[in-house]
Design a protein that fits this description.
Order of helices and strands: HHHH
Protein name: 3-phosphoinositide-dependent protein kinase 1
Helix content: 25-40%
Number of helices: 4
Radius of gyration: 20 Å
Keywords: ATP-binding, Kinase, Nucleotide-binding, Serine/threonine-protein kinase, Transferase
GO molecular function: ATP binding; cAMP-dependent protein kinase activity
Shape: extended
InterPro entries: Kinase-like_dom_sf
Strand content: under 5%
Length: about 110
């Protein structure tokens, strides 16, 4: 659940899967620092987050023209994937009931 995921992060109890890129691991670790003042980007002035942009994970990104660039292709890391037969597309009865009960006027973003 989301709650348990957040609890693991708060306890710094998380692992990276085998083959997780070193630059990505370093970036995630620096963003998940519990002390917000020591977190990557926390001391950057303005809204550009220069220290994050300069992280090796983002090497080669042209930040000035990023909106004009073609996004990278996302290719699944799964060698073989199939949808289980018991899954049906769309919303099930429980999901529809939850949506009907959802009150946008009381929700918080």
């Amino acid at each position: 659940t989301e709650f348990l995921t957040f609890q693991k992060i708060l306890k710094m109890d998380y692992e990276f899967p085998e083959g997780f890129p070193a630059d990505a691991k370093d970036l995630v670790e620096k963003l998940l620092v519990l002390d917000h003042a020591k977190r990557l980007g926390a001391n950057d002035m303005g809204e550009t987050y220069e220290s994050i942009r300069k992280h090796p994970f983002f090497e080669g990104i042209d930040w000035e023209n990023i909106w004009e660039q073609t996004p990278p292709t996302i290719s699944p890391n799964l060698e073989e994937y199939s949808v289980p037969d018991h899954l049906e597309p769309g919303l099930g009865k429980n999901q529809i009931m939850r949506l009907w009960e959802f009150d946008l006027s009381t929700s918080r973003g």
